[in-house]
Fold each of these.
Amino acid sequence: AVPLVVAINTSLAARNGILIRDRVAMEEARTLDTVVFDKTGTLTKGEQGVVGVETTAEWSEADVLSVMAAVEGDSEHMIAEAIRGAARERALTVPDARGFEALEGRGVRATVDTDATPVTDGGTESAAGATGESVYVGGPNLLRHLDVDPTAALATFADEAGSRGQGVVYLVHDGATVGAVALADVVREESRAAVDALHAMGVEVAMLTGDSEDVARAVAADLGIDTYFAEVLPGDKDAKITELQTGGRTVAMVGDGVNDAPALTRADVGIAIGSGTDVAVEAADVVLVDNDPRDVVSLLRLSRASYRKMR
Ligand code: ADP
Ligand code: MG
């Protein structure tokens, strides 16, 4: 009867986007009490996104983002894509721009041709719109280069973003900073649901990352993750799994990268995200083909259910 149950389980799993490479591990999944997730590319999207916008006086968030997106129109930088994406998500009208110029390692400059920039207090015409003057978008290096200090509010925004491990890019208009955005690797919405569901099943969730303490703390807090290990060198990830196992835990590791492979092998159940590298998939017992961290929950449920049937 056992092989039959396992076979049913396997096809049911496949329909849930779960590819089982090692059936014994799949059976073991019912005893898991801890799931360790890799951060970048597993719990997060692994790409930059705009996570905050700060404005000054007469500039609205929409003004800041749409003008920034205009200036970034010609740039292939990951930051430019994030800013254009944020403007697109908010369905903002991006003004025309010309004279694009990349300032290597600092940012970009362009001339914004429309009157999309806001009208000043005095009710005069928008400066950028009227004169078509230079608008800059760039990081702290750009401000140093232009010899511009951020306003007090923007400096505070930058400090707070920095403490969360986020980068900041400023909008400079008429020799002054008029807005800024904070950029971070974006947490997947599905990750939140996965963590909550695992907790509801009585499973502890941990996160493992090579990223900084600041970033790790922020992501763990955001997702309600119990334990995190930050600044873990690629060669030390598997040692963290062993540490948990030595402490009496039965551990699943979920990862996508080449440097996750030893930890996937070491874990009681190694789970690779399907979009991950071949090396991670080869090291894994189970592959989540839909790249959805919530499928870890389905996997545990399936394993627990099939165990009940076999008894
Ligand atoms: P990196 O690859 O580490 O981002 P770059 O030399 O490309 O290094 O950029 C260094 C910094 O310059 C960035 O962190 C950012 O602050 C600023 N920068 C570069 N390009 C842009 C851009 N297109 N838009 C805004 N800021 C930029
Ligand atoms: Mg990764």
Amino acid sequence: MRAPCTRASSPSSLPWFGVTAIGGSPAAALDATLQDSAEAGLPSIAVTPNQGKLLWLLARVQGARAILELGTLGGYSTIWLARALPVGGRLVTLEAEAEYAEIARANIARAGLAQTVELHVGPALQTLPQLLAEGAGPFDLIFIDADKKNNPGYFEWSLKLSRPGTLIIVDNVVRDSAILDPDADDPTLGNEGIRGVRHFFEKLAAEQGVDATAIQTVGSKGYDGFALAIVSG
Ligand code: SAH
Ligand code: DHB
Ligand code: MG
């Protein structure tokens, strides 16, 4: 059963969660990305503005020069993360759906990031071995936000594409506390997604080579969370 407190109030009714950028980060290209994604019929499952800003901050704190993202959708989180890169930095993002990738490409180009972002279309579990074989890594920051059932596999590949000090961030690890219940049927992730996230947490806990925690994020899409793991060796 889910904790009753998660139902107490609608986070979107709290005005400050609508704030896109507290200090810096021009919002126009980000707002246009969400608008065009919605008009193209993409699902409204991008990170919220405050989560995007947290990704940006974490990438800045990390001093990331090479970022890998799994799950591009319309490119909203991609743009937040790519904006944190220094000149000469690069971001590789993986998306299974060709139609989503097409929208993302246009959004990324409008944000002035076409030269910074490399988008690969195809199932991430097929692209990840190719990236490793090409010597694309190691990445300084990896954001895992694709299909949740494959999170355990994505975590394994992320470790292969890491160096000591790499920051791995995983989205959607709280799901309004549904993650506590192995039988939960999340409205969009399904039970398969919930089990994927839980299995990922088991692997994370068992993995000697990372130090990790999870934080709750709350925003216009309710209560969810990021897992944060730093590769130790
Ligand atoms: N990171 C985005 C949201 C991603 S939503 C943002 O916050 O803006 C999850 C995305 O993962 C969807 O676009 C979905 O098509 C993609 N996806 C699903 N299965 C995938 C797979 N096997 N490989 C790569 N991407 C996948
Ligand atoms: C949903 C949200 C996400 O951030 C995601 O990556 C996938 C699905 C959702 O709310 O359904
Ligand atoms: Mg997500």
Amino acid sequence: MTAQIIDGKAFAATLRSRIAAEVAALAGRGITPGLAVVLVGEDPASQVYVRSKGKMTREVGMASFEHRLPAETLQDELLSMIEQLNADPAVNGILVQLPLPGHLDESAILSAILPEKDVDGFHIMNAGRLATGQKAMVPCTPLGCLMLLRDHLGSLSGLNAVVIGRSNIVGKPMAQLLLRDSATVSIAHSRTKDLAVVCRQADILVAAVGRPNMVMGDWIKPGATVIDVGINRTEEGLVGDVDFDSVRAVAGAITPVPGGVGPMTIACLLANTLTATARVN
Ligand code: GUN
């Protein structure tokens, strides 16, 4: 079997054009959704992401507010910027790009963002709402993965899902979303014993570990749907957490890197910004 390729790039483009149409409708009522992105320091990958987020935000007709702060920015200075953005009615969504420089307290910073403007879904209130089945702002990367899975599989009910990775940004919220869709969910991680055996149970396998080409073809249940969240910069270029060639020969469907989950993340950020705007208008 050769797996079907799940085209996240095309799916994300369709989603962005739907968002652009809704933004145009809001413009008729004098409303422009606004997204503020805060970047502290000069991390090269973060700079690329932030530039790309600003470009896509403008392309769908939203207002983009970019704030670049020096790496030495103090905790109080960043907190006061977040307070200003919280109070600004032109700003519907606030995103603080991670990772932050080491002297800043990440969880305190993320918790300073108003939960209703927390378009990353990283605020503890949104994490708690998601975990307890309430209406939440959902982290963009797992939300994008869920959309691709639903589009490809229809119902996820009763399927065995294995998530490799337990980060607050991807692994944990991904598991919550799969559970909400009635999948049977396991979270595997660096201490999991017999990882290959665990993965072979999976009808849905989501890899979010940040280790290039780690998931091999003989870890895959024939016909499984494989979602590769990894974006690893190697000498061979950008590669995922999944060994594409060997897995493709066994899986039923697979997301490529690049062109799979990556484009979905920004599209979902714009979707969350639209949701945040709709909730106050
Ligand atoms: N750094 C890597 N991924 C993300 C993300 O989804 N949001 C933010 N704020 N920072 C990130």
